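Forum > Structural Biology > Help requests

Title: Can anyone predict the 3D structure of ornithine decarboxylase?

Hi all, first post here. I have the sequence for ornithine decarboxylase but no way to get a structure on my laptop. I'd be grateful if someone could post the structure tokens.
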Amino acid sequence: MTTARILDFLRTERPEGPCLVVDLDVVRDNFHAFRHALPDSAIYYAVKANPEPAILKLLASLGSNFDCASVAEIQMALTAGASAERISFGNTIKKERDIARAFELGVGLFAVDSHEEVEKVARTAPGARVFCRVLTDGEGAEWPLSRKFGCVPQMAVDVLVYAHQLGLESYGVSFHVGSQMTKVDAWDAALGDAKRVFAQLAKQGIYLQMVNMGGGFPTKYLRDVPSAEAYGKAIFASLRKHFGNNLPKTIIEPGRGMVGNAGVIKAEVVLVSKKSDNDEHRWVFLDIGKFGGLAETMDEAIRYPIRTERDADEMEACVIAGPTCDSADVLYEKNMYPLPITLTVGDEVLIEGTGAYTTTYSAVAFNGFDPLKAYVI
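Reply #1:
Sure, ran it for you. Structure tokens for ornithine decarboxylase below:
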């Protein structure tokens, strides 16, 4: 959403070129909403969503923990004020030297999903706690996650037994239901799988303690999404259903849900054209596209709200594309986007809900365009 603070910043500062503006007040409100919705779950902010130092510093001051995908992100979290005990190395695909460096920095919690990854952790982070990621189907997610991460539940049992045999602490299991998950009950089946892994390991004398319930919490784009409280109620009910009164420690890893609605991208219309005299649809080219930070429009998966000063005028469906010399840089064509027919070159547009996965997806200098600038207010 475009807050009054963001509008005031854009009015007074007039930043040149496409840029992202993030309102920290919204991030703070989102953190408190998650804490209220799942008060017994530790919040591990997914740094990859938006690693701006001011965001990390705010969240660290509020008591957030951090889910990191690399040593660089671990160092960012430490610089922001988090202790190493508040950091999880949540990537299941890690170089052995990166595991060693994280362990040297004090990180003691690592994600795994294979025997080989367990061996790397055992060699370089002896005695560390590990949790094994379990595959989920991702049904209902607008940005589904692939089979790249995780293993089937039975293999998770074998992996955690192996970790125990190698001297690691088999600490728990994790899963991710898919990003921008719009079904509040999506965690139920995964929690059922987690319980079965707990039970099978207990039969072998290995008692898991933690379920990492991942992210997936959505932000509002064009359609309304359930509140954090609605997700919290559904997840807690599923925890009770599968674990009874013997509830495990739980972790959630909000990323998009923490910062998505806190950011707005200001962009500019570069060109409005048609492909033939009898073409029924205009092409609207912006100074930002897939390579400038809007990669999640791939396959038109994420449909951002776009606002202009001409929205009171008649609207017409059009194709929206980015500025680069690459034919893949088209945002919306199969499902065209309604924009004012009066929209013209030089007009500014506001692309809302862009606080997550934009600056981090922005190319360094593709076609010579600068990376997406960011301002945190």
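The domain at 261-376 is CATH 2.40.37.10 (Lyase, Ornithine Decarboxylase; Chain A, domain 1). Residues 221 and 304 are 5 Å apart (CA to CA).
Shout if anything looks off.
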